[in-house]
Design brief:
The structure is a homodimer of 185-residue chains.
Chain A (H helix, E strand, L loop, with lengths): L7 H11 L5 H12 L7 H13 L3 E5 L8 E5 L1 H11 L7 E5 H7 L6 H25 L9 H33 L5
Antiparallel strand pairs in A: 1-2
Helix pairs in contact in A: 1-4, 2-3, 6-7
The structure holds a DNA duplex (28 and 28 nucleotides).
Amino acid sequence: MSTTSLSPTARLILGMIRMGRRTGYEIKQLVDVSARFFWTISYGQIYPELKRLEEAGLIAGESQPTGGRTRTVYSLTEAGETALDEWLAPDGELVWELRDEGLLKLFFSEGRDPEDVIAHLRAVSARSEAVAEQLRSIRPDVDEPGPGPLMALEFGIAFNEWLTDWWRSAEERIAREAGAAPARR
Amino acid sequence: MSTTSLSPTARLILGMIRMGRRTGYEIKQLVDVSARFFWTISYGQIYPELKRLEEAGLIAGESQPTGGRTRTVYSLTEAGETALDEWLAPDGELVWELRDEGLLKLFFSEGRDPEDVIAHLRAVSARSEAVAEQLRSIRPDVDEPGPGPLMALEFGIAFNEWLTDWWRSAEERIAREAGAAPARR
DNA sequence: CTTTGCATGTAAACCGTTACATGATTTT
DNA sequence: AAAATCATGTAACGGTTTACATGCAAAG
């Protein structure tokens, strides 16, 4: 009944629990391997948020130690299922944020030696190529049910390939302009 | 001589001052129109940071009131020019962050009614289409010197067009799968 | 004369990372 | 025996947004 509007981080945790990641540790692992390029989370958020969600009655924790090692396994309550489904409904404002210092440097490149600008563009392009390659390498390991996790990963691959190409074409463009009006030596 | 390693926000401000945006207000304006989709900044950051940069000797402020309206105009000192050039040199780690709640919802879409998933994908696609259109509409106004600002804007346009296509193709894929294995009614 | 734009600033709240601390279990 | 992995948690720090507060100037 409570509409305590959850933070995206809280919703991520609810979703992960429904996917079967039931301890804080497991949630962190899955985010790190399959959502890292579009969402990150740290233990400093996870454990306090798990407590808050339990207090709010959206999840229920059960102590299940492995030997002498403490371990709390969470599951969604009915209210938690409802809250997650409400978020998943196709409406509402969605967080979308990009912070790209590479673009910022390009933005301020006026007056720089074209060689330096080109080196920068090349480095940025190489970075997304490396990310694409890394994501391609983990694709075979995705065995989550449903199309979501695989499609998200494929987004990451396609996006980083697109980025690689864009930065490469930017490099060509700057090289052409520098060739047409070469820097004085 | 001091290597007080600046935050990206501080460097953004230095860059904007070199581009001729010399008051806090003007810096905010330019970021909002031309860098908004890959970098944001608020007055709550700008004014304290301008003071810090002045104390650090990287910028110098001069009071230039317009009538009875207070106004402080900043310019780069030699140390400020150097600091900016150091950052612009083609090396060093660059902040890159994406936060996309739309992808997160896709990630957790397992078990949802395909109609809902499709509606979500359509909404996300429409959102990037609207951003692309908005960026296209401001392109003719870009009259900054050098290729950087225009290229950054063109990145935004191309990126949002790519996003639009990707989400549309995701929609088709889900629709196909739902058609092949339709939901029970 | 009213609205919009110019211009500056602060305080509180919020969000997130990093570093630290602890200790058990499993693998090498 | 050592290293890696499992597992939980906190405190401090830092960055960012939001809301608030103020007031002049220009344009309608």
